[in-house]
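USER:
I would value a second opinion on how I read folds in token form. Give me a protein, with the fold worked out from its sequence. Write it directly below this note and I will take it from there.

ASSISTANT:
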Amino acid sequence: MLKKALRFTGILICVIIGVCLLFFAFIWGSVKWNSYARKKEAIRYQKEVCDTIKTVNGKFEMTLSGFNKKELNKVHFYLQQDKFLIKDTVITVSFNSNTDSQNVILPFDKFNIHDRVIVEIANRYFVLSGISYVVYYNYGMFGPVGPCNCGRSNFEIINGKPTGSGYLIKDYGMLKYQLPPW
């Protein structure tokens, strides 16, 4: 009788462990499948929607670093389309003495993603290009919430060199630069 009870208890424990393993395998598979489906959706959305956006709408913030108050009295922005300048704007940046970097809003409301923005600050030039739209998700506590969207990247190329920050640092500005014609 004891032998049958131990055998029954052993089988019952094995069944419970098997059900638990099956439950966790189901959850793990579901998470992996959702991740795979989201990646496939993001790739499709990038190709079909984000890569087709050709116009940058709205102003966005840029960061200037290493400049003093006098140099920021006149910041000149030029918009270059193809080989010619089409717009220019001069602004004065409100100087914040608490930090080394200053934020400025790009003064152009609408331009093409292939256009270049040239910024002149204290005889230093920064040629900005490489804006693109990339897919992103809104994330909640347990992963992505809702559908994917397209978000604008920052300027990825400054003075012909790839950069990830989009900061305009005084030491990296070009001193001798010939502006394109009007």
